[in-house]
From TrEMBL:
This is HSac2 domain-containing protein. Residues 122-276 form the HSac2 domain. The lineage of its organism: Eukaryota, Metazoa, Spiralia, Lophotrochozoa, Mollusca. InterPro entries: hSac2 (IPR034753), Inositol_phosphatase (IPR022158), TPRG1-like (IPR040242). Coiled coil: none annotated.
Length: 328
């Protein structure tokens, strides 16, 4: 199967298209959002690769003025409205050396046993490390810069389907990579230049009020470069559309395994913190004087009634696993 290369949400026909997209540095047009916001400028980063944890703790969680989805009832104090805050193992484990706090909630009362974890091909015999070594060939040093780190997370597309994705973060770009861990094949990837990102939403996932979908009961992040524009009819109603101007990510299911040394790789919080640092540095050169907008509040998934995505997600079909001798 031929690999598909997608840059900034568009499938590249040639390298000339990349330059055309990269030169577009127009100020982002931002939509109003009822929640807490944190604007981070390049001045907040002191020229170091170490994450400034103060950036991530100086956000006031406030009750949205109007609900954007269903079941926006309080799960705690008034400063915690809409956030269940069940923390990944890396946050509460004594062996943790990187995760100091959790910002996105996990599914309550879910534990991934070792037997279940071993059914994931990415979990077998350093498959993830081998996959990263394979797919990092897509990085162009003169365009993307140096590879900083990698994660294995869950992408939720605009039709509410969950799929396993490798995330690469470089000095100037982030990559969302579809990789088949069974036959060790790169299927497709998207390159998103960091300087075009205008906002990052972080919080619990919610469906619209009229949605018939059951509550997700967990959170994640949504990275947007949409400039406040709405999806076209063709984008919204095409489940295979590859130019959606945002990407939604959550923890990988393996984070529910209690082994501490895996929770960093599968933790979307770790990626969020590293991404904020990387974008803020890029803004110094590409968008001086501008600020990255971080919004803490409910993250909307616009799905109303999708039995197909329910079956797909509950069966974990978007993850490469050994299913009692049948692998897909």
């Amino acid at each position: 199967m031929a690999d598909r290369k997608i840059t900034n949400g568009f499938i590249d026909k040639n390298d000339a298209n990349i330059t055309e997209v990269l030169d577009d540095d127009k100020p982002a047009v931002l939509k109003d959002f009822d929640g807490a916001t944190l604007e981070i400028s390049s001045n907040d980063i002191q020229g170091t690769d170490v994450v400034n944890t103060n950036i991530l703790t100086e956000v006031d969680i406030v009750q949205p003025r109007t609900a954007i989805g269903k079941n926006n009832s309080s799960t705690g104090s008034s400063t915690n409205q809409g956030f269940s805050r069940d923390r990944p193992g890396s946050v509460i484990g004594r062996a943790s050396v990187r995760s100091g706090s959790s910002r996105t909630s996990t599914r309550p009362n879910v534990v991934q046993s070792d037997v279940s974890a071993r059914s994931y091909y990415c979990y077998k015999d350093s498959h993830f490390e081998k996959a990263v070594n394979t797919v990092k060939s897509i990085i162009k040093p003169d365009l993307d810069g140096e590879l900083k780190s990698s994660w294995l997370l869950t992408e939720i597309d605009h039709w509410d389907f969950e799929r396993e994705k490798i995330i690469l973060l470089t000095e100037n770009s982030m990559f969302v990579v579809k990789y088949n861990f069974i036959n060790e094949t790169l299927y497709e990837y998207r390159r998103i230049m960091l300087h075009i990102i205008n906002s990052i939403y972080i919080g619990d996932f919610q469906y619209p009020n009229a949605s018939l979908m059951p509550d997700r009961k967990h959170g994640g992040i949504q990275i947007r470069w949409d400039r406040g524009e709405q999806l076209t009819f063709g984008q919204k109603w095409n489940p295979w559309c590859s130019d959606i101007p945002w990407v939604t990510l959550s923890h990988h299911p393996l984070i529910y395994n209690r082994k501490e040394n895996e929770t960093v790789t599968y933790n979307v919080d770790e990626f969020f913190e590293s991404l904020v640092t990387a974008i803020s540095k890029v803004f110094t050169e590409k968008r001086p004087g501008e600020k990255l907008r971080v919004v803490e509040g409910p993250v909307l998934i616009e799905s109303y009634a999708s039995p197909a995505s329910l079956v797909f997600n509950q069966g974990g079909i978007g993850f490469f696993r050994d299913r009692n001798g049948v692998s897909f």
